[in-house]
Amino acid sequence: MVPALPQGRTARIAALAAHCDDLPIGAGGTLLTVCRARPGIRIDALVLSGGGSAREDEERAALAAFCPGADLRVTVLKLPDGRLPAHWDEAKEAVEDLRAAGDPDLVVGPWRGDAHQDHQGLAQLVTTAFRDHLTLGYEIAKWDGDLGRPSAYHPLSPEVAEAKADLLLEHYPSQRNKPWYDREAFLGLARLRGIECHTRYAEAFHVTKLTLDLSGE
Ligand SMILES: [Zn+2]
How far is the CA of 201 from the centre of ligand 1 (A)? Predict the structure, then answer.
């Protein structure tokens, strides 16, 4: 098991999403685990769409619940859902602003193989802006059947996996009418990813580039 965050100082995570609820669905258990273990950790979250609507309120409350005790800064923009290519420059500027705001120890965002155009576009922007950072690309189950073969796993305790499902159902009433938005889907994928890394539950991520330091210094 590889420690991915620094010891002895406050770590910093940049977390990016095209839509409200993407981050908690893709990495909510991981955020919950990290924030509980590291009080005061800095989390900069950027969400490209949903700003100014009820969805922004949901997202802010959800992220606060998924990042307890964190120094959490949330930005929710108003780009229209499903239209990222038409608003490429705005999205690019927002990602670059986040990059310029600080040097994160870890980046969490969508992965380039995601079939949703907005997720895929943001994944490209993240790779361009965060060139020297470990980036975990989260997965979101969907109609397109685009779940791939992830390369990085973050085990979740059963309690965290259950809490993730509870919080997702509690904080996003606007999504409850979607046929896939249920406890069974969230825990089912976490259980499958758990099997793949010899634990009960896990979240899995795509890592396209990893720079190693084996010097031991
Ligand atoms: Zn999304």
Answer: 22
Question: If you measure from the C-alpha of residue 214 to the centroid of ligand 1, how many angstroms do you get, rounded to a whole number?
Answer: 36
If you measure from the C-alpha of residue 116 to the centroid of ligand 1, how many angstroms do you get, rounded to a whole number?
Answer: 7
Domain boundaries, position 107:
12-142
Instruction: Per residue of the chain (217 residues), give pLDDT as tens.
Output: 777 788 888 999 999 999 999 999 999 999 999 999 999 999 999 999 999 999 999 999 999 999 999 999 999 999 998 889 899 999 999 999 999 999 999 999 999 999 999 999 999 999 999 999 999 999 999 999 999 999 999 999 999 999 999 999 999 999 989 999 999 999 999 999 999 999 999 999 999 889 888 887 6
Residue 48 CA to ligand 1 centre (angstroms): 10
Q: Which two tokens stand for residue 215?
A: 């010097």
What DSSP state is assigned to residue 109?
E
> Residue 91: is it exposed, middle or buried by C-beta count within 10 angstroms (0-12/13-18/19+)?
buried
64 occurs within a structural domain: yes
| Domains contained in the chain, number | 1
